[in-house]
Task: structure prediction
Amino acid sequence: MITYEYPLNERVRTLLRLEDLYDRVNHFYSLEHAHDHHACLTGMFEIIEVASRADLKSDLLQELDRQRTFLDALRDNPAISRDKLDQVLTDLDSAFSNLHATSGKTGQNLRENEWLMAIKQRAGIPGGTSEFDLPSYHYWLQHPADDRRNDLAVWMKPLQPVHSALSLVLRVLRESGRTVSLVATQGMFQQTPAEKPAQMLRLTIASDLACIPEISANKYALNIRFLVPEGVQKSRVYDRDVAFELAFCNL
Result:
């Protein structure tokens, strides 16, 4: 099965983009080659660009606190696992405290490092980080992999509270959705939205179906077209019925 997630507001869109960037950074961090660690560092630069929104930290703190208050009220509910609830509340408390303790904008430590900012500026130019452009960076890339990884860990550490917070928020968001089984007739599906607007859609289809969903949604209607991916050619609608699962997620 393949799951496609579609954000329905700018805040969730930003969180999903950041989650993808953090996953990419962590992947390349664990590898050895200089090219891997270059990709890790440029991913960090992308994180501080996406996370530069002034209200991101306050949004995450408010949402963590709101979820903590909501879940704490469920302690006496016999249908709720007390152990699991306590673990989630502990995670929320830890994420809130760590994020609240950070000061300044996300990635401020990177912005104050002139050497890194010179690399960031050149990284925005195709081929701009060649050895003749940035000899000091080329020198760093020749260091042993463990030494480079130690430096990357230091630069990445102040970015981790945001990662922990957004991971928890997205986890709660994903688990909020109630999944329903639906069919798109000849690749087309339309539905009027629920009274309470969702913040994210999660659509799951079988991986052996040669089609991809194109989703558009507003307060009046949800439209899904399943298209045949044809590379350079213009996509066309998949003209068969498509069984899929859909979840409307809301915090």
About this structure: Residues 10-29 form the longest helix (20 residues). The chain is about 50% helix and 20% strand. The beta strands are 2-7, 178-184, 188-191, 200-205, 212-217, 222-228, 236-237, 242-249. The mean pLDDT is 86.
